[in-house]
Structure formats: structure tokens, C-alpha cells
């Protein structure tokens, strides 16, 4: 089942789904794989810790990994091909080519993690170019990444449908992230971020539409020295919004010790009504809840 | 035969060759089409005047066009599908996504035509992404473009072979370019550029390897106020070379009135010997020689 990108492309096809991951899989990744397996004739997942998207070498060095577990989980979710490109296959020499997305990729994560969004856009472009899938599945936890990838696909004309899938949370609300295992004793503090966002979503449900008030709900829950940003944005462009009208997303990032986490709620208000998408909450601790 | 990118991708395939052009076809383009038709099962050519690669709106406005002649010529050369995307198909809205190539794309043309190489890399990436060819044919006249495209394909992992094809010259030595028809009475002056490069190639054949001497041979032929640059470069990186050793290319650009032309000779010197590639010279005036 494990293969290179070149071999993966040569497979008999039909509708091909792609789930790009950096491994250390959790229920968020598995939901993407299951959805692709249900919707596509062939599901490929990639496992590649992309150095281009790490602005901090220490963050890259400690990024968690469990190769054997990943393969077993992916297979159980219906992944047909697990593409595990070696560094020499992905980038035989450091790439000179960069894919940048003006505006959408420059704000927020682009500001706080210089080069991160270009690294994401470049490696996703490479996977789409090399594997030629018909659908590509991304979680909504990385809301800005989803906006960037959607725009890359549109601007560069890849014949692929980008499918955004629900964010998955722990029982206690923490958004699933492979980095959560690094939180250790800071885990309870880190819950402030999702608690703040849930509070903002509650206020939205009660009729609050002002960005200032929604952002303040996050800021009131997260210590100033931990919060990097809490911002209401227009969902497709990630430009700041003053009111939660149309499709917006309240995105936030915070740092707890060496671990940086991001989270968001999608807020939609239009003529048909209003809804706050808080994602999906697991009924049990996640696969990676207690692991390190 | 004329079609959109989406329709073109849906065709029965085999080995697919792509010849990207901006139209107003001359024998240089036709040689690419004929080669693709000879080597591939299906040949697609694109005709799209890419606004992203024009740094000067006046240059874009006066770029020559002859749609009907182009279609007839392409068909006669064995092109199976002429892809003529409208502006709304290529870029329904101005693209935010840009493909840049550090180093290779920043020098020379990148310096003298700001944004040009990013415009080229972005539109070529879009054509490769949308049309998924197996081979893509480019002329060596645009030596830096060929280096940039080759690097984009390598870095982004497109499963396509980039094929560089010989530069084609008029009987009098002028490198074929759709823009030549705009030279008018300046045509005889413009011959200085190819004359200078042929002189440099002669000196190379006589054993000269120093960049200074080879570049001086061009400068001695072209008036200072016309010449933009004459530089010996390593062929794959386009970095300046001090000696014509290995695979180098002597590239030059000059401006005659409002018309800017580029030209080059490829100089190869290794253990097997030395050769100056001056391109191919037509035995008769080109299709576009006298047209305006």
C-alpha cells in the first residue's frame, strides 16, 4: 500500500481522492480519509512532513510521528494508497519555485509564521501536479489553509474539487491537532482557546454580529500573553470583517509554552438564517489524547 | 479543432504533447508543433496572449495577431487540438496566485521586465495543471524561459518532459519573433543583435572562452543605447559565468524604438569538445517576414 508519487499516479483510476497529511493521524485526518473512501473510486493519502511550511526548525524537529500506527489507521479507513515520498523524491534539491497567494496567504498565519503559507501552497501544488487527483480533502481546522488551497486550485486551473470537511474536537472542546500531544501539562490552559471561540459562537447565536464583540469573547478567555490573534474574517479571502454577515470565520491562534495551536468557528448569516459551525465533537478521548 | 482547456483534457489521450504559444505563429512555433506531432499521439497547442507576462501595457496592446492564419498553420503542422481559452476561462478574476522561481527567474529578463518571469511561470503552471500533457515544447530563443519552466516542472513535480527546441532564424540571421513585424524600418538596425551573437559564436569556435571577450563581441556590434544586456550564463541556472565551460548560453536583449528583441547562442564546451549552437537558419524569408 505504501508507494511513491510516480507509482501512485500510474494506478488504474476512476475518481481519485487525495488526503494530504503530515502524519501522526487523529480522528480529524481519519474523517477526511473515510469521506474520500466513501466518495471516490481510489483514495490516496500522503504522509509527508513538509519542511517548507515550518518557520521554526525546533517545531519541525519535535513534530510527532508514528509511522506504523498511521499506516494501520489509514488502511482501516479505506485508503487504497498511502504515498510516503522520501525527501529526495519530493525535493531532490531545495526548490527554487514558490507558489504564493497574495492577500489570502499573507495575513494571519502568513504574518505570524513567515513563509508558512507559501510552503503550504507550494507543497499542495506539487501533490496536485504529481498525483492528479479529482478531489482533495482538507479539514476546516486550518481555515486559512483551506482558503489558500481553494484559491490556488482556482487560479492555476487544477481540475480538482477541493472539499472542506468539519473540524473535529476532543470531548473537552480542544480542536484536534497532532501538536496537542506536545501540550503535556499545559493542556488545561490550552482549552482557553476553544472555550473562547465557543463563547463567541454562543454570542453569535444570541444575535451578536459585531467583529469587535466576537473577537472580545475570545480575548476574554485567553491570556494576553498566549493569544496571537483572534480575528473575524471573510471566509474565502480571509480579509478582516467588521460584521459577521455572509460567510465568515472567527480564527484564533495562541501559544502555550513552545506549542502553538489554532482554532476557529465558522459563522454564516444570510437571508436563510444564521448558523455557527463549531465542528464535530468526539464522544470519547481521541486516539492521540494521551499519547506523547 | 478549437476548444477550451476543459474539453481538451477530456480527449482520448496516449502521449499528449503541448505547444504553448501567444499566436501570430512563425516557423519557430511551427517547428515545435511538427516535432510534437511527430513524437506524440495527440498534440495540443494553446493560443493565449498572456497579460500576466507583459510588464508594458503598450507592448500588450500592439502584440500582433492573426487568428485565422494561426489555426490554418497549426492544423497543417499536425496539431490535433488548438486550445484558445478566453480571458474568462483562463483568469475569471485576476489571479492572486503567483509562481515564482528564485534566482533563475529574477535575473536578466526578470530584472528588465519586472513581473515577466512570474507571469510566464504562472501561466505555464496553469496550462500544465489544466491540460496534463506528457511533453511540453519550448523554443530555445527564450533561453531563460526554458530554464524557468524546466525548474518549475522539476520543483512542482509535474509528470511532463520539457523539450527545448532549436531557435529559428531568418535568412539574414534575425531570430524569429512575432514582434519582428513591428520593427518596420528599424529591421536592418535590429540585425546588429544577431550579428553580434554570431560574432561571439565565431570567437568561441576559435577558442575564446572568457565571458568578458564573448560579451564584448556582442557589445561591439550593438549600439550602447540599444543594448540592454549581453551576458554569458550557466544554462540551467542563468547565473553569470566567467568562462564558457560546461553548458552556457550567451543571452542578449536590445531595444530598437518601441520593439524589444532577445536572442542567444548556446555554447557548450566539455571533455567531448566544443560547439556553438546558433540555431537553425531558414532558406527563405519567414511567413511573417513582411507582414504587419
Q: Please give the CATH architecture of the largest domain in chain A.
A: 3-Layer(aba) Sandwich
Overall tally of structural domains of chain A: 2
Helical segment count of chain A: 10
Biggest interface between chains: A-B, 33 and 34 residues
Secondary-structure element string of chain A: EHEHEHHEHEHHEHEEHHEEEEE
The helix/strand class of chain A is: alpha/beta
Spatial order of the strands in the main sheet of chain A?
Answer: 1-4-3-2-6-7
**Regions with little confidence, pLDDT below 50 for 5+ residues of chain A:** none
Multimer state: homodimer
Give the strand content of chain A.
15-25%
- CATH topology category name of the largest domain in chain A: Rossmann fold
CATH H-tier superfamily of the largest domain in chain A: HUPs
Calculate Rg of chain A over CA atoms.
Answer: 18 Å
Amino acid at each position: 500500500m505504501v508507494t511513491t508519487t510516480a507509482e501512485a499516479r500510474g494506478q488504474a483510476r476512476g475518481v481519485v481522492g487525495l488526503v494530504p497529511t503530515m502524519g501522526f493521524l487523529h480522528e480529524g485526518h481519519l474523517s477526511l480519509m473515510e469521506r474520500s473512501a466513501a466518495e471516490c473510486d481510489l483514495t490516496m493519502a500522503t504522509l509527508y512532513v513538509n519542511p517548507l511550511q515550518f518557520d521554526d526548525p525546533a517545531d519541525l524537529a519535535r513534530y510527532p510521528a508514528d509511522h506504523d500506527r498511521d499506516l494501520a489507521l489509514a488502511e482501516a479507513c479505506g485508503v487504497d494508497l498511502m504515498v510516503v515520498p522520501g525527501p529526495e523524491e519530493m525535493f531532490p534539491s531545495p526548490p527554487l519555485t514558490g507558489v504564493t497567494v497574495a492577500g489570502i496567504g499573507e495575513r494571519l498565519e502568513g504574518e505570524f509564521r513567515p513563509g508558512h503559507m507559501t510552503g503550504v501552497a507550494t507543497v499542495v501544488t506539487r501533490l496536485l501536479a504529481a498525483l492528479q487527483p479529482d478531489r482533495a480533502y482538507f479539514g476546516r481546522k486550518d481555515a486559512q489553509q483551506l482558503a489558500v488551497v481553494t484559491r490556488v486550485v482556482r487560479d492555476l486551473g487544477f481540475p480538482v474539487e477541493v472539499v472542506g470537511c468539519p473540524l473535529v474536537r476532543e470531548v473537552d472542546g480542544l480542536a484536534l491537532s497532532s501538536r496537542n500531544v506536545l501540550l503535556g501539562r499545559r493542556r488545561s490552559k490550552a482549552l482557553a482557546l476553544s472555550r473562547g471561540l465557543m463563547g463567541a459562537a454562543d454570542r453569535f447565536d444570541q444575535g451578536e454580529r459585531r467583529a469587535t464583540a466576537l473577537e472580545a469573547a475570545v480575548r476574554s478567555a485567553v491570556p494576553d500573553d498566549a493569544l496571537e490573534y483572534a480575528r473575524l474574517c471573510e471566509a474565502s479571502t480571509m480579509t478582516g470583517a467588521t460584521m459577521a454577515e455572509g460567510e465568515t470565520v472567527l480564527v484564533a491562534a495562541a501559544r502555550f509554552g513552545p506549542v502553538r495551536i489554532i482554532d476557529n468557528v465558522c459563522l454564516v448569516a444570510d437571508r436563510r438564517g444564521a448558523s455557527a459551525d463549531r465542528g464535530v465533537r468526539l464522544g470519547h478521548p481521541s486516539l492521540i489524547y494521551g499519547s506523547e
